[in-house]
Amino acid sequence: MEYGIIFAILSPLFSSIATIYQSAAVKIMNPIFVVSISGILGALILLFLIIISKEKINYRLIKANSKDIITTALLRNLAVAAIFAYGLSLTQGVKAIFFTKAEPYFVLFWHWIIRKEKIKSQHLLLLGVHAIGAILLSTGGLLQFGKAQTGDLLIIMAMFISGFSYIYASKIPKVLDPKISNAITMGLGGIILLPLALVLSQPSQFTEFTGWYYLLAYVILFSVISMTLWFASLKTVKSWIVSALRSLGPLAGLPFAWIVFGETLNTVQLVGGAIVVITSALIAREHFSRENSKQN
User: Fold this and answer.
1) Is residue 107 within 8 Å of 239, Cβ to Cβ?
2) What DSSP assignment string belongs to 11-39?
3) CB–CB of 43/183 below 8 Å?
4) 229 closest CA partner among 159, 181, 189, 160
5) How distant, in Å, are the alpha carbons of 143, 207, 263 from that of 128?
6) Higher pLDDT, 120 or 136
7) Angle formed by the axes of helices 227-234 and 178-200, nearest 10°
8) Which of 103, 195, 224, 275 has the fewest CB atoms within 10 Å distance of its CB?
9) DSSP label at 91?
10) Statement: residue 22 has pLDDT above 90
C-alpha cells in the first residue's frame, strides 16, 4: 500500500482543524509567542517519542543536510509560520483554511521559475478563477478592505513563501526520518523566534488558561501530527501532489469551525470557498492523470 498518499490526505485534515485552534490562540496570545512556543513544544514532544521508541538519530546525515534543514526552518517554521499567525490574528480561521489552498499554484510558480517547468494556459485560467473565488471568500461580495482583508493577504503571502519551501523541504525526509525532520526544523524555528516572542508578549498572557489550551491543541494536531505526516508524505510523493491534496482540508475544518467555535461564512463566501477548493482539486486531478499516464 502507498502510505505516502494516505499521509498526504490525512495531513491537511489535521492541519485545518489545527488552524481553527491556532486562530483562537493568536487572538488571545501574541502570534509570535504562539509560533515560537508551539514549535519548541512540538519538537520536545517528537524528541520524547523518538527516544522512547529507541529510534537512532544519525547526526552525520543531519550535518550533511544542514543547509536544507536550516533553509526549511527559516522559510517554513519562521517566516511562513509568523506571517500566517499574524494573518490569523486579523481574520477568521474558517477563511484561512480555504486561503491555504492557494499553495499548489505557488508550488507550480516556483517550479516554473527555478526548475523551468512549463505552465499551461489552463493552469493560468484556473488560477484566475481561483483568485476570483479568493476575493469572494475574503470580502463576501462587498467592496471593502479592512483588517480582515489584510489578514487574508498575509495568509496568501505566507502560502507564497510556503510554495518556495517545498524545494528544500522535500529533500529532507528522503534521508531523515519524518519525526526527526519535523522536530529539528520546528525546534530551530521556535528557538530563533523565542527572544522576540518574549519581548512582544504581555505578562498576563502567560497565565491565560484558555489561550494555553488552544495553543496545546494546535501543537498536538499541527506540530506533532500534521507536520510529521507532511514530511512522511514528501518521502515518496511528489511535492506538487502533496500540496494539491491540501485542498481536502476544508472537509474537516469547515464543520469543525462551525460546531466548536460557531464560525460561519455567508452564501457569497461559501461560493468563493467552493471555487477555491474546486480549482485546487482540478489542478490535483490533472497532475494525477499525467503521472498515471507516465507510469503506464
Assistant:
1) yes
2) HHHHHHHHHHHHHHHHTTS-HHHHHHHHH
3) yes
4) 181
5) 19, 46, 27
6) 136
7) 140
8) 195
9) S
10) yes
